[in-house]
Design a protein that fits this description.
277 residues, mainly alpha, two-stranded antiparallel sheet, 15 helices, binds iron/sulfur cluster
């Protein structure tokens, strides 16, 4: 019984996604929803189980599988723009498309529950960035976060302009903007990571999705906490954090608290097991 309890988070996540899968399947009478959410749930549950069992590189494997699955299945094969432009596009059309569903679950409502888990386990941009050599920032943090707001506004204006000027064949444009947008993200993300010696520089300064992710994840139920009675202030955890979070401060206002991607690197590096979820 004790060994099963060790995997309680994994079991919880599996059943949570199964419930979501059944709700969407029944609501929209489309088994694809059941398949998609079940797969995501199995992968998330698996990675948590692998982490619990302390298996190395589990997160990267899951991120590659989940990210590729969504990118290929929904984006390339089903021609759904599931980037931020696709989200605006669905809102302008007034339809509950794949992008709205994806944004609600992973980026707008979900983060109240699991913070930026999407950024650590599902994002198809970061799945490539995380393979680069600069896992930990090697230069001082830059004060250029305003770029994310410009990109956010540009994405909204781009889609609004398509509607205002009644551009023909918007669906085709949205598909191509998905392809070009992703190539741009990969190019800028990789370039910036090499330039700033920080794999996650794109996430910290450019990604427009963080405009949604950061406020919601401030209230996240799932977050890394520190047992201050056993912590010896050795600082090993902070040296391992790819997002520069001060995880030894338990307050919501801790430094870069809304950037935590739940990679659990800090927990694995703590010699005293002072960090937990
Ligand atoms: S910040 Fe953006 S690019 Fe980075 S992992 Fe999150 S969604 Fe992906
Ligand atoms: S190392 Fe810890 S605090 Fe930093 S992003 Fe990963 S889980 Fe969050
Ligand atoms: S690694 Fe553990 S003991 Fe060291 S500062 Fe972090 S939480 Fe405290």
């Amino acid at each position: 019984m004790k060994s099963i309890m060790k995997y309680k988070y994994s079991i919880f996540v599996f059943f949570l996604f199964e419930v979501i899968a059944i709700i969407f399947w029944q609501s929209f009478q489309n088994p694809l929803y059941f398949l998609t959410f079940s797969c995501i749930g199995i992968f998330f549950a698996l990675v948590i189980a692998l982490y619990t069992a302390k298996v190395k590189y589990a997160r990267n494997v899951v991120q590659l599988v989940v990210g590729s699955f969504i990118l290929i299945n929904l984006g390339l094969l089903s021609h759904q723009n599931i980037m931020i432009e696709g989200f605006w596009y669905c809102l302008f059309l007034g339809v509950f498309g794949a992008a709205v569903m994806h944004y609600l679950i992973a980026k707008i409502v979900g983060p109240f529950l699991f913070g930026r888990g999407w950024c650590g386990y599902g994002c198809w941009t970061a799945m490539i960035l995380d393979l680069l050599p600069y896992k930990i920032r090697q230069n001082p943090r830059k004060n250029i976060v305003f770029i994310r707001y410009i990109v956010f506004a540009a994405s909204l204006l781009f889609v609004a302009a398509l509607f205002v000027f009644k551009v023909a064949d918007i669906e085709k444009i949205m598909f191509w903007s998905f392809i070009i947008g992703n190539l741009l993200y990969y190019g800028v993300g990789i370039g910036l990571a090499i330039r700033l010696k920080d794999n996650r520089a794109f996430c910290k300064y450019i990604c427009p999705v963080t405009v949604f992710l950061k406020p919601a994840s401030y209230f996240s139920i799932l977050r890394v906490k520190c047992d201050l009675k056993t912590c010896i202030n050795c600082g090993k955890c902070k040296k391992e954090c790819p997002m520069d979070v001060d995880m030894t401060d338990n307050s919501r206002k801790r430094t870069n608290g809304t950037e935590c991607i739940l990679c659990l690197q800090c927990m694995n590096s703590c010699p005293n097991e002072s960090l937990h979820l």
